[in-house]
Amino acid sequence: MAVLYRKFASSDESLLLYAEMDKPAIRTVQRKLKTGDLVRIVPGMVSASAPDQWPALVARERLRVLAALFPKSLFAYRSAFNGGLPENGEIHLTSSYRRDVELPGLKVVLWKGHPPASGDLPMQGREIYFPSLPRTLLENLTVSRGSLPKAVGKAAVEQRLLSICDARGEHALSELREQARALAKQLSLLKEFNTLDELVGSILGTRASQLVTPEGRARTAAVPYDAERVALFEQFATRLRSTPLQQAPAVAVTEQAHIHLAFLESYFSNFIEGTEFDVQEARGFVLQGQPILMRPEDSHDILSVFHQAREKGWANQTLASGEAVLTQLRERHAHQMRERPEVMPGEFKDKANRAGNTEFVSPALVRGTLVQGSLLLPTVPAGMARALLAMFIVTEVHPFTDGNGRLARLVMNAELSLVNACRIIVPTLFREEYLDSLRVLTRDGQADPFMAAMQKIQQWTAAFNYNDLDQVIEQMTVCNAFERSRSQFKLLSPVKPR
Q1: Which of 130, 124, 64, 129 is nearest to 296 (CA)?
Q2: DSSP class of 7
Q3: By the 8 A CB rule, do 335 and 403 touch?
Q4: DSSP 8-state secondary structure symbol assigned to residue 249
Q5: pTM over 0.90, yes/no
Q6: Torsion of CA 156, 335, 314, 402, to 10 degrees
Q7: Which of 112, 149, 380, 498 is deepest in the core (most CB within 10 A)?
Q8: Bridge partners of 128?
Q9: Domain residue spans in the chain?
Q10: For 227-478, which CATH superfamily applies?
Q11: How far is CA 225 from the centre of its chain?
Q12: CB–CB of 85/77 below 8 Å?
C-alpha cells in the first residue's frame, strides 16, 4: 500500500495521511502528535491546521482522503449516480464491511458489497474506484427507504436511460442492457436487472411501456437536431466559402520541432480551460516523464492532448461527415479523457451544459446536430476554412461533459495539419480575444471577428522557430504569451534575427 500511495505524498502538513507515508515518516508524525505540533483528525489522518479548517481540507482533498482511509472501495448508489459528489453531506461507498464514518464536514456511508468488477475504473491512479455505468444503474434500482435513500430509484434511472438514448442512440441502450445482464448475476442484482430490462424495452418499444416519467411517456423515436444551431453553421459555412483566408504553411518541419509545438499547443490549450501549470513543470512531465505528484488528473489532461497533437493518427485526422462523425468524436474523447472516468470518456453528455450565458445544444439534440453540421464540412475549402468550421461545430454543440474546448482545438488543428498548414496555438494572453470572437459568432452570427482572430493567431504561431524549446519559451515570454491581463499587456510578435 505504501508503495502505491507514496507518489501522492505531500510535505504540506495541513493534511497528512498514513496511507501515503512510509514507516519512518509515520514515526515522525507520531512524535509530532505527542508534542502537539500535529492533531489527529481520525485514525490515519492528522493535521497541523486548526479544527475549524478541517471541513474545508476534507472537501478540497476528498478523493485523496477517501482513497487513503477506505482503500479498494468504490463510489456507490446515489453518490455514483451523481458523479461522485456529496449530497446532504454524505458520500456512499461500497466496501468489504458496513460502517458509517464521520469526517469533518463529510459523512462516509460504507456498504458491504462486491469489490471492483470489470468496467470499474480507478480514479486518478488511486485505489478508489468509480463504477461502470451498468453497475451504477443496477445499484440505484435497489429498493431503499428513508428521507434520503441510498438509491435514487426507478424514476431517476428511467430519466438517465432516456438521456443516454437521446445522446447516444438506441444501440447504446441495447449494449448497456447486455453489459448489465452480464454483471447482474456477479453482483447479485438479478431483480434490479429485471427492472432495468423492462425500462430499456419500454424505451426501445419492444415491450409494453413501464415508463413513469412524463419525458418517457412523451418520447419519440426520431433523431432531432437543433435547427437554430444548424442554421448558424450554414451561415458560417456560406461566409467561409465566400471569403479568402490567409493560411500560414507548417513551420515545425523536423520531428523535434513537431514535438515542441505539440507540447506548447497542449500546454496553452489546457491553460485556457483552467489547467494551470508552470510551463517548465508541465514540460518536465510531458517531455521528460517527471511526475507532478499532487495533480495527476490535471497532468494527464495535458499529456492526452499532447499525444493527439503529436501522433499522426490523431494529428491529421479530418473530421468525418455524416453519421461517422459520431463514432470519430467519441473515439477522440475516449482517448483524451481516459484518465477521467467520472466525466464519461467517449460518451455524449446526458445533462445540459453551458458557459456563462451560452447554453449549448441539449443532450437530446447532440447526435442529430453533429451529423447535420458535419455535412457542411465538404462544402467549404480544405485548410483554414474547414478547420474553423469543424472547430466551431464541436464548440457550439459541446457534446461531452468535459474536454470540449480542447477537443475542438484538436479537431481544428488536425484539419490544418492535413494540408500541411501551421497548427494554431492560442496563448494565455489571447484567450479572451479568442473567446470573445466566438461569443460574437454564437450570439450575433458575425463571423468576421472570429475569422480575423484565428488568422492573426496562426500567423503569430508560425513566427517562431520550434527546433529549440528553451529559445521558443523565452521568446514567447518576451512576447507576453504567458500573461493574462489584456489591459496590462499586449501580445507581441517575436523579433526576427537580422
Answers
A1: 124
A2: G
A3: no
A4: B
A5: no
A6: 50
A7: 380
A8: 73
A9: 2-116, 154-217, 227-478
A10: Fido-like domain (1.10.3290.10)
A11: 24
A12: no
